[in-house]
Automatic annotation (TrEMBL), chain A:
The keyword Lipid metabolism applies. SMART domains: PTPc_motif (SM00404). This is MTMR7 protein. Its main location: membrane. PROSITE patterns: PPASE_MYOTUBULARIN, TYR_PHOSPHATASE_1, TYR_PHOSPHATASE_2. Substrate binds at N173, I174, C236, S237, D238, G239, W240, D241, R242. Transmembrane segments: none annotated. It comes from the Eukaryota. One of its GO terms (cellular component) is endomembrane system. Residues 24-402 form the Myotubularin phosphatase domain. It comes from Promerops cafer (Cape sugarbird). Residues 419-446 form a coiled coil. Pfam families: Myotub-related. Residues 467-556 are annotated as: Disordered.
TrEMBL record, chain B:
Belongs to the protein-tyrosine phosphatase family. Non-receptor class myotubularin subfamily. Residues 1-300 form the Myotubularin phosphatase domain. It comes from the Eukaryota. PANTHER family: MYOTUBULARIN PHOSPHATASE DOMAIN-CONTAINING PROTEIN, MYOTUBULARIN-RELATED. One of its GO terms (cellular component) is cytoplasm. PROSITE patterns: PPASE_MYOTUBULARIN. GO terms for molecular function: protein phosphatase binding. GO terms for biological process: negative regulation of autophagy; phosphatidylinositol dephosphorylation. This is MTMR9 protein. It comes from Promerops cafer.
Amino acid sequence: PVKYEELYCFSFNPKLDKEEREQGWKLVDLSEEYNRMGVPNNYWQISDVNRDYGVCDSYPTEVYVPKSATAHIIVGSSKFRSRRRFPALSYYCKGNNASICRSSQPLSGFSARCLEDEQMLQAIRKANPGSDFIYVVDTRPKLNAMANRAAGKGYENEDNYSNIKFQFIGIENIHVMRNSLQKMLEVCELKSPSMSDFLWGLENSGWLKHIKAIMDAGIFIAKAVAEEGVSVLVHCSDGWDRTAQVCSVASLLLDPYYRTMKGFMVLIEKDWVSFGHKFNHRYGNLDGDPKEISPVMDQFIECVWQLMEQLPCAFEFNERFLIHIQHHIYSCQFGNFLCNSQKERRELKIKERTYSLWAHLWKNRADYLNPLYRSDHSQTQGTLHPQIAPSNFLYKFWSGMYNRFEKGLHPRQSVTDYLMAVKEETQQLEEELEVLQERLANLQKSQSGNNKVKSKQQDRSKHFGLYTSNNSLANTPQEYSNDLKSFPSRSPSQGDEDSALILTQDNLKSSDPDLSANSDQESGVEDLSCRSPSGGGCLPSEDSGKDSDEAVFLAG
Amino acid sequence: LLRSSQPLTGPNRRRCREDEKLLGTIVDEDERGFIIDTRSAQAAKQARMSGGGTEPKSSYPQWRRLHRALERGRLLQESFVKLVEACGDASLSMDRWLGRLESSRWLGHVKAALSTACLAAQCLDREGCSVLVHGAEGTDTTLLVTALAQLILDPSCRTLEGFQGLLEREWIEAGHPFQLRCARSASSHARGKQEAPLFLLFLDCVWQLSRQFPFSLQFGEQLLLTLFDNAYASAYGTFLCNSERERSLCKVKESTHSLWAWLNQPEERQKYLNPLYSHNPLVIWPSVEPQSIQLWQGLFLRWIRPSQHLDEAWVEIQRLVEGS
């Protein structure tokens, strides 16, 4: 597609009235969210300096900045930052006043300075009286950041910015990530790979290494905030990819609210949508530069899944929720992930002309619940502490995502769905018990011996039977041998969200390993020669079992 | 499903009428049978030089021979040791972990074992043919295949009781030399010549089945870990010695207690049951694609990473299912 109007969301009609459409968009309210966090307060204020996108056109109209950051400081700082993305608040920790701020790289070159930018960082420090320094975290590899200096950009010099501790956390750039995914998909498309082919292929793609790098960065920042009580300023190059990933992972670890379904939607709206992650460029809403395509949000979503696997009780939502969100980043069925910035979306009047994904998911939230989640569980309180090191072996290949359509690969019995059904049934029975007990009490009061207690017909068969009789679905063998006849059977894909819209081989084929003309002006450090993708589609699924979620926490 | 050891064909291609007759009684007039030889075709051929070999087609015309090379012995032990080392190596960076995992080849062995068991099961269930399984001695990979095949095919083997029966039949009475195979602690560097983690490989395969079919086994991971421990060092006599004969000579049944007796006590039994179990009368066909075979964290990371969060998840599951 070339024009936005060609996209599905503009013709999608779920038959809701205007009021319902509006309500759908109001489900997630960022000003409510900032209030929930505890701002504005003595240290943080809302600034309208960008109200007409005059300072930074990829930022939202409303940003939170330290009390001592005047409009003059903000504007000055924005001129010293790539794409004018000045430091702004991402997350505020009520408990100890530490905060996570985000920005883009400073235009420092080899020796340039900017008073206002230095004042901005000081303002961030002052907004946290509990600490006399802040961390500045550059999520790029050191080599890349240094190369940027030659182009007049770079990173903060500790000598110039008083009281900062600077840190590189090398996460690779969008081109490396794009190629990494491509290589991994090639592995997935191998026909009957050996264990060796698979593991080597996975390692060569580097995919899990990158996921771990993002996670480790998030953990570092969460620790700084929760344990050290120190504020952190995070940036990469332009502050809309790695910065978004790392800030949202850190927030997820810090604040249990983001681990609820609603909170997760809010998190994405805040750190991805409002802060100008370039959805259009990254996920190809419209035909564009293939070098801009990169699975940035896919990686964030996978980080969440990896966390869910390690901490099965900690999230209110389940794997299916993540998969459907990922699906809709590419589907363009809803308007949330369109365009490259809030400004563009407002110009296109997205809210008046399309529907919100969040309302759609919220309506179906029963499908997305994690039966093991309890808000009073120890895993759901406070900061999450995933194991840090050693932790290589904790990262698994997400076949629920990358082999989604090969039904033969997944446990054919969904533990999540079964447990949800059990939970529901238990609840129903408890409610019925209450009703019956009340009746009994009333009857005893009225002392009328001739009253018969009508027993309520309990419809147990609804969910319960359905899941335990999963067994009646035919279960066919895989291809174990060329010596015998094989028994192929394809299972039809089920439902809208199951159609293949994930970043496929075809989308990535056009990417060019030569980085010299990239928009990011970073030197590629990795060897990016891609093998020509092996032809052929997905492995044929031989099972006719129903679609199921990977059992996320099975300890046997 | 039958098992044996290799025929002693030898370099001179000896024949044995009785053996041929015995196999002849298994298959009807115009039926076929399959022989699954757990050695590579080459290894099986070489075995002739030392007096062993394979069933020649001409003497066993109704039987079709398939070779599925399964690792055993020293190489399997090495594989296990490499994996344990990789898991414990704190200095290993993420971009080398998968390579180390791969070079241990352990998961490859799991895949091969499951595939072969599935092949046997397929011959029986889908082709309706009898299957004879043997390797060299018939005490290692043979038992691995026949035991797994039964789990796949027969729901009664998947109950707690049935599984114990399976172990008794296919491992203990069938003469797997536990004393030789599990002589030392599993990851000891001093390697006995006869040491090999076949039984552990079996347990790993069972774990893979339980992960792929979470409702179909009446027992859980805890049982598998307990069995692993007891195969090496036990307060009970169940896994002692190398054969029924030795156990009889050592008067094991008179002088020791049975592990099963202890496990089956009501309070103990509870710990080993799978709260999600529901009788599944069908054959369970696992996926043997690499993506479906995972590292058994509960065993290999047992002492390396805290299992607290996963244990809590299990408690929740139990609470949900039993509270209803």
